[in-house]
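Example record

The entry below shows one chain as it appears in the dataset: sequence first, then C-alpha cells.
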Amino acid sequence: MKKREFVVQDILSKIYQEHYSDGKLPTQRSLAIQYEVSRYTIQEAINSLSDIGVVQVVQGSGTFIRKDAKQNPLIYNSLTRNSYDRISSKIVFLEKQPALEEDRQIFELDDEQFVWVFQRIRIVNYKITQIETSKLPVSLFPDLTSSIVEDSIQKYVQQSGYDISHYITSYTPVLITKKQSELLLCKKGTPAMKIINRGILKTGQVYEYSEVTAIDYICTYIIPFNKESHQTRQND
C-alpha cells in the first residue's frame, strides 16, 4: 500500500474512532512526524480527504473534520477521490447499434430498438487509468453526442430530466489484454480491476450499463455494521 493511501485510511479510521475530539486534525508537520513521511505526502493525503468530503481545509486555521463526515456510508475509489478538475475523458468511439438480446434484457427494450455504445478513456492527474465501455438506450437519450461522452454522463442524465436512484456495482480482478494495454499505455498482463455498473433511475429503469477496466485501482468502503443481517447470515 502506498504511504499516502495508508495515511488516508488511518486518519479516516481515527476520525471514526473519535481521536480528534476537538474536530480538528493535527498540523501537517505533526502528522508528517507521526507517520514518518514527507509534508508532501501529508498534503496529498489531506487533499484526498478534502476531495471525498471528510475534511475542510481553512487557510491559516487548519484542517477541520466536517460535521456530517460520519453520518452517511462512505465509498470512494481511485476516481471519485479526485476533484473533477483533475479528471478528464477522451472518447474512443460512439455508435448507435441495434439492441442485442442482452441489451433488451438489461434495459427492458422491445425488439428493433437501439442502444448507444461508447468507449472512452479516463485520465486522472494526467495519467490514463481507465477504459470505460458503456451502453445507454437511445429511447431515453436520443441526442447523445461525443462532447457529452467526454464530459459527465451523470450530469447529462440529470439535465435530461431524470433522477438517478442507485448503482449496482461488481468487481473482478483481471489482467490487461494487448488491446487494452495500447489504450492504457501499460504492459500486457498488468493487474487491473474490472468494474461492472448498472445505473438505475428513480423510476426503476436501468439507464446505463458500463464495464470499466482500471489500473492502479483502490476502493475503500466505510459502512455501518448491520447487526440483523449478520445474525441472519449466521443462522442460515
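Notes for this example: The mean pLDDT is 88. The chain has eight helices and ten strands.
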